[in-house]
Amino acid sequence: MNSEIIYVIQPIESENYKVLHEEAVSLIGSAGAEYAGTIYQKIREIDPATYIGEGKLMELKERLEGLDVTVLFNGDLSPSQTLNISKALDDRKVIDRTTLILDIFALRAESSEGKIQVELAQLRYIYPRLKGKGGALSRLGGGIGTRGPGETQLETDRRHIKNRIRYLEERLKETEKRRFLQTERRKKERVRTIALVGYTNTGKSTLLNRLTGADVLVKDALFATLDPTSRGFTIENVPFLLVDTVGFLQDLPHHLIEAFKSTLESALNCDLALIVCDGSGEYDMQLQTTLTTLNDLGFSSPYLVVMNKCDLVQNREAFPKDAVCISAANGLGLEDLKRHIFEALKDEFVRACLFIPYEKMAQYSAIRPYLTEQNVTYTDDGAEIKAIIPAIYAEKFSSFYRHRDHRQDP
Ligand SMILES: Nc1nc2c(ncn2[C@@H]2O[C@H](COP(=O)(O)OP(=O)(O)OP(=O)(O)O)[C@@H](O)[C@H]2O)c(=O)[nH]1
Ligand SMILES: [Mg+2]
Q1: Is the shortest distance between the CB of 210 and ligand 1 below 6 Å?
Q2: 3-state SS, one letter per residue, for 330-345
């Protein structure tokens, strides 16, 4: 556990600064560090050398005197700004929002692919920050910004880091190839995939557990989930695959999205996405951030907006129209959600009533795995079967149709 104590410098540039600050405090907790306090700083013009300007920097130095704390600048610093601020504060350790987020990702990465992706993001971020700075890394000391799979490399020189980046890129390509093959196999099996996406800490993993009976880690922390996890579940006995993904955050570091792009893309190559928002929180901002990030990733599948944590919500009037209200924690609204999922995918399925004469049972048995039987009634000369059939297989059953329709209600 990291016992680093962190003091936040919160720039006041936009109206959004309060939410950004709250998130910084959560991020600090999620990194296992301790939050010590905040200095709010109005910024009229960004100083290219120090971001906040020489004068403010001197004020800051006085306020931090005698405190053994790391400074978190809750924004993005350029490499030279980081070094200049650190120098002005008597070589104090200075990190920015990206470094903190990368650190949490390093703590959470479990799969080998996730570890490679985080290390790559860390090295790519740190690489330009080492320019001409032999001692820059030792200045970082231990703790946040130096953790993770890249730890040992961080003490070596830029050339070494460059080689390491190249090596990791190669390994990542191999794992991507493997995953591509898996996705292809999944497509062939035609199990519909539903991806859970959305802002961090909105309850995606809780919903996955609820719907599939899985036991994925649920935590009141940012970025509890890193690696996509998938589990099967059924609606009206029709099998689906549900994929959990890493949460988004405002100003998520570009490096991180780049590094995770391939895993995310594979999850987002889904038949339907559920965009999960915290209905008791800043859901508008969460939805906007998610849609923007998805857009950047070239996402184009249909989606449903799901307002979670409705057990905490009194007034739902301001929710986006068409949003499905649920509480993953207590199961409220889940049947409604399942209906919406089916409705959204209705073009993918055909509901039909089949009649199978007994002498054709063997022929039917051969193609039976393609459909899901809902109800079977035996008559004198055959079986009457109500079924849901994936649209692409509908023709296989053409000789057995009594009638078929696309209606949702049987
Ligand atoms: N009150 C309430 N709390 C919930 C609900 N669903 C989830 N939570 C809580 O919200 C927190 C985050 O839940 P997770 O399922 O880990 O959220 P997540 O979206 O997977 O988060 P990341 O993986 O970090 O992106 C946990 O403390 C949950 O117990 C809900 O319906 N109501
Ligand atoms: Mg999660």
Answers
A1: no
A2: CCECHHHHHHHHHHHC
Cα 250 to ligand 2 centroid, rounded to whole Å:
17
- The 10s digit of each residue's pLDDT in 90-128 is 888 999 998 999 888 888 888 888 889 888 888 888 887
Please tell me the pTM assigned to this model: 0.83
Residue 264: both structure tokens together: 């995310």
Rounded to the nearest 10 degrees, what angle do helices 283-296 and 254-268 cross at? Answer: 80
In CATH, 191-344 is 3.40.630.30: no
Other CB atoms within 10 Å distance of the CB of residue 178: 10
Phi, psi torsion values for 121, nearest 5 degrees: -65, -40
Using DSSP bridges, classify how beta strands 70-73 and 382-390 pair: parallel, antiparallel or unpaired: unpaired
Q: In this structure, which ligand is nearest to the CA of 206? A: 1
Q: Which fold has domain 348-405?
A: Alpha-Beta Plaits (3.30.70)
* Inter-CA distances, 292 with 123, 216, 286, Å: 26, 27, 10
Q: Which atom of ligand 1 is nearest to the CA of 206?
A: 15
Walk across the sheet containing 349-357 and list its strands: 372-378, 382-390, 349-357, 401-405
Q: Whose CA is nearest to atom 2 of ligand 1?
A: 309
Q: Using an 8 Å Cβ cutoff, are 66 and 44 in contact?
A: no
229 in ligand 1 pocket by Cβ < 6 Å? Answer: no
Averaged pLDDT, 270-293: 95
What are the structural domain ranges in the chain?
1-182, 191-344, 348-405
* Alpha carbon distance 406, 410 (integer Å): 9
CATH no. of 1-182:
3.40.50.11060
**79-94 mean pLDDT:** 89
How far is it between the farthest Cα atoms of the chain? 93
Q: Is 329 within 8 Å of 347 (Cβ atoms)?
A: no
200 lines ligand 1 (CB under 6 A): yes
Candidate from 150-164, 228-242, 381-395 with smallest mean pLDDT:
150-164
Q: How far is the CA of 205 from the centre of ligand 2 (A)?
A: 4
pLDDT digits (tens, 9 = 90+) for 134-177: 444 444 455 666 655 544 444 556 778 888 899 999 998 888 88
Residue 284: count other Cβ atoms within 10 Å of its Cβ. 12
